[in-house]
Amino acid sequence: MDRLLTQPQLPEGIPVDERAAAQLEVIREIDEILGRLPARCWLRGGWAIDFLLGRVTRSHADIDLVTWQRHRARIDRALQEAEFMRERELVAQTDYINDGQEISFVYLEQDADGAIIAHGMPAWIWEPAALPARKHTLLGAAARVVSPAHLLSDLEGYEQATGRPLRPKDFGTREILWRLTGGGGAG
Fold first, then answer.
1. Alpha helices, DSSP H only, in 37-103?
2. In the predicted model, is pLDDT for residue 92 greater than 90?
3. Residue boundaries of the structural domains of the chain
4. Phi, psi of 153, rounded to the nearest 5 degrees
5. Could you count the other beta carbons within 10 Å of the beta carbon of residue 30?
6. Which of 65, 95, 168, 185 could pair covalently with 87 via S-S, beta carbons 3.0-4.6 A apart?
7. Is the pLDDT of residue 3 over 50?
8. Which run of H or E residues covers position 36?
9. CB burial of residue 4 (10 Å; 0-12, 13-18, 19+)
10. 132, 184, 169, 186: which is closest to 45 by C-alpha?
11. 39-58 pLDDT, tens per residue?
């Protein structure tokens, strides 16, 4: 079991363990590296929820990010220069390891009609409002975050897109996103 660090427990949050502290440090480092390029990225997945709420809500297996395809080669070079190891490269994403933490970048581009799509996945459409400029902070780390509306849309499409049922953690996430977007929710 991970030893708890000295960071405070946030209201309604969980104590920050070594893994969460390491992941927050990786998020800080990525923000710094991309800020020097310059290139923007946005958190998605579980860490996006935590940054939106301003507290750590659960343990996370990895760090999910999205950025523009046009920055892919520069980001890859900069991350590798900073000792991030490229683990896997696919058409739509690249996975890295840093300090034992898994990081995935999904790449976006505009199609011929100007719609924002995931590179190589034209069915995965993103609204321009999905990528706000504002940064959120959590325990000293700053990051842009995919909009709650888009996170909810992705989560609600998960079952259909993957053919797999929602995971137990997804039900709590859905409730949080319903609250953040003013949606109905299950009540």
1. 46-53, 72-81
2. yes
3. 18-147
4. -60, -45
5. 26
6. 95
7. no
8. helix 18-36
9. middle
10. 169
11. 999 999 999 999 999 999 99
